[in-house]
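Why does residue order matter? Because the sequence determines the fold. Keep that principle in mind as you read this record.
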Amino acid sequence: MGSFKERLIRFMYGRYGIDQLYYALLLTFFALRIINTSARSIIIDLLSWAILIWMIFRAFSRNIYKRRRENEKFMQLWTPIKRQGSLTRRRIKEIKTHRFRKCPQCRVMLRLPRKRGKHTVECPRCHKEFKLRILW
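Structure:
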């Protein structure tokens, strides 16, 4: 008789397991459970348990192709949100030393030193020069 870990590994062989969508659903489940402690709504309760069942179903599923496609669709939605969040965190962190502006031509975000006044900036991607003003 093997250890519990060995039996679990053998059981999970050929099953999908855990991915980024699983972790997102897990966080959503816990968030809904915390909200439901004060709201006491049966709808939120049923929704949270449905998410838990879906998580378990996905983790133990043998249809790996479908689960990968689900995760890819989730990542296509999540990646731009994550990128915007990291840019916002960076802007807050560097607010005393830098300013972030978009190039009017190619819409790339430029990180500029915080020097007050009027400036002429050349975009490193499209090489278009444009004027901007940094107020504070």
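The two ends are 70 Å apart (CA to CA).
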